[in-house]
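Cross-posted from the bioinformatics board.
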Amino acid sequence: MAVMTYRDALNQALREEMSRDESVFLMGEEVAQYNGAYKVSRGLLDEFGPKRVVDTPIAELGFAGIGVGAAMVGLRPIVEFMTWNFALLALDQVVNAAAKMLYMSNGQFKMPIVFRGPNGAALQLAAQHSQAWESWLSHIPGLKVVAPGTPADAKGLLKAAIRDDNPVIVLEGEMLYNTKGEVDEDPNLVIPIGKADLKREGEHCSIITYGKMVLVALQAADTLKKEGINVDVVDLRSTRPMDVEAIAKSVQKTNRAVVVEEGWEIAGIGAQIVDFIQRECFDDLDAPVVRVHQADVPMPYAKNLEKLAKPDAAKTIAAVKKVMYIE
Amino acid sequence: MAKKQSSAPAPAKAQASNAASADVALKKELLHSMLLQRRFEEKCAEAYALGKIGGFCHLYIGQEAVATGVMSVLRPDDYVVTAYRDHGHALARGMSPRSIMAELFGRATGCAGGKGGSMHLFDKETNFLGGHGIVGGHIPLATGVGFAIKYRGGDQVCVCFFGEAAVNIGAFHEALNMASLWGLPVVYIIENNGYGMGTAIERAMAQRDVRKHGDSYAMDADSIYGQDVFAVREGIAKAVERARTEKRPTLIEIRTTRFMGHSMSDAASGTYRKKEELDEAMKYDPVVMLRDNMMKANELTEEEFAKMEEEIKAIVQDSWDFADASPEPAPEELYTHVLVDTTSDDLELANAGNTLEAVKA
C-alpha cells in the first residue's frame, strides 16, 4: 500500500497497462508534450514515446473516431478528453460507433477502447465547463461507465477498463485529482467493473452514490455519526452496469435511502436508482427516497450561486434527516 | 467543370485508351463484378417491393465501376470502410452474395446475423469494416484503421468510401487533417453522384471542386471519371501505392451517377432531379459501356455475355433462395453481442493470440 493522489493512481494505471500490453496507447489533446492538461499522463511520453502517447489537434470527433477505428482492428486505445464537456462533440463516435459496433457486426468487431477524462463541475468554470454526463452515457447499451471516487478505485477501475474488450467510459473529477488515499501497488490488481463498494457501514439510512459525490457522502456520514446517525455509504463505482444487489442489500437493512448525484435531476442516474428501489424494495421502505443533485439550472459562475447549485454534504445531511423524519 | 457538376461528364476517349492495357481475362472479371452488382441490386428492388427487405435500402446502381475498380487493385489484407450504400462495395470486395442477401432479408445467416441490415454489412474475413449509417461518421474510423496499420508497421491500406455530401461534415475535415499530419495509409474516396439525398451539390456546397479540400490538408488529391472502371483502377492504384509505400493519404473524387433514387422511397427522377438530366447520364452506363467496348474490340462475344448473364442470374437467384429459406434470428439473439464477456486477461489465459498479431501483415 502507498498513499498517493487520484492523479498519480491514474498515472500508475496507465503506465502499468502500457508496459503490460503494447497494443495500448493514449491519445488526446495535450497528453504528450504538455504532460496532460491535468497531468494525469505526466512522464508517459518520455517512457513510451510519441508513437504510443499521441498529441492530437483540438478535434474531439476526429480523434475519438480514430480510436474507434484502431480498436476495430485490434489496438486498445485510451482516448483522453480534456473534459467530458468537450466530448459532446465526439458523442457520435462514442454512441453511434463504439457502442454499437459489436452488435451491428454480430460479434465480429470488438471495441476494446477507453474514453476517459474529468466529468462534472470544478470551481467557478461556469456553464459550459461544469457538467456531469453520466446519465447520458449510462443510457447507452454497449457501453460500460465507471466513476471512481477514490485513488484506489481510480487505479483499479482504469486498469479494468483498459483490459476490458468493450468500450468503457471513465469519469474522473478535476476536484478529485489532488485527493489522496491508499492504493495497492500490486500491478495485477484490478477492480471489477459493476461492483459497488460499501464505503461506510451504518444501520439508519443508505446513502447511494458514485464518483465525486462519494467524498460528499463520506463527509455527510462523518458529521451524522457525531449526531448518532450511522449511515451506509454505497459507492456504486460503476453506473453501467449498476450493482443493484448492493443497493438492495443496503436498503433492506436500513429501510431508508438518499441518492446523491452530481448531475441534474431530470432523467438522472438517481431516477434510475429510485426506480429500482421502488420496484425491488417497496416493502422495505420506511420513507420515500430522497434525491440530492445539482439545481436544475446551467452552472452559474458566481461563487455563491455555484455553491447553491451544487449538491454538497449539508444538502445530503438534510436529505438523510428528512428520510429519518428528524426535524 | 461543366455547368452541372452532378452528373459525371463523359471523358474524351478515356475508355479506349485506358482499356488497351488491361488483358481480356481481367476485363471479363471486372465486367462480371459490375454485372453481379447490377443484377443483385435489381433483385433487391424486387425483394423490397415484396416486403422481404425492410427499412432503408440504398441502391448503388449506376456507380458499379467505382466499387469494382477500387476493389480490383486492393490486396486481401487491405481494409474497406464504407457508408450505407454498401451492397456494391461488399459484393465487389468478394463477400458472399448469400450472406449479403440474407442480411438484407434479416436472417440469421446474414453477414451480421440479421442485426445490421442493408446499411451495416460487416465481414471480418474480407476486412470489410462496415456499412455505416451516419453521413461522414465513418471517415475517422477509416483513419483509425490507417493509424493502426502504421502503429504496427504494416503495409496494408485502408480505403474509405463516402458520398460528396459527407464533405460538408466536420468529421471529414478532422479526419483528413490528422491523416495527413500523421502520414496514414488511407485512400479517401468521394463518390460524387451530385446529390446528398435529394439536395443537389449546387444547393449544398460552396466549393464544388471537392478535390481542392486536399490542398487544405496538404494531401494529394485527384479527380477521376467514375463510369470507366479502368480510369478508376488507374487513379486508385496510384493512391494505393502512395499509401502503401510512402504512408501518404490521398483524397480522390470519383465522378459518377446513381441511376436510382436516394433510397427505395424516392423516385430516380421527377422531384429533385430532372428526367432529362438522368436520361443523359444513363447514356454512360458503366456496365453497358464496358460490355459494348469489349464486344467492339472482339474481346467478348454475344454468347459469352449471355452465358455471363445466366451465371450471374443463377448466383443472384441462389442468394435469394438461400436468404428466403434461412431462419430468422432466434429470439435470444436479441441480447447477444451487446457486450463481449472477455478481457485482455482472458485472451492471454486462452493464449488465443493477440488480435494485434492476427491482423499483422
